[in-house]
Amino acid sequence: NIDFVSNYEIINFTVSSLRLDVFVSAVCNLSRANSQKYIKSEFVSVNHMVNSNFSKSLNEGDVVTIKKYGKFVFIAEEGVTKKGRLRIRVKHFR
Description:
Blueprint: E1 8-15, H1 20-28, H2 32-40, E2 44-46, E3 49-50, E4 63-66, E5 70-80, E6 86-93
Antiparallel strand pairs: 1-6, 2-3, 2-4, 4-5, 5-6
């Protein structure tokens, strides 16, 4: 009998768009240029498929796995800030 405890936290981010490189940059605290290099190196998978297209648009429910950083689930888009940026809610599995 295996006891599975899902250990995660819900985090809110503000991003300029729902592109994969912007998402990786926000959740990993990297620059966009570095997140694009990371994606090009095939260290990022979306919905369990390796993805090297950093301009891919994410949808609610997408699972993004980033080597060395963990698994993230894009839960919801929460609205827009006064400056036109998107508020998103993310589940980060530890």
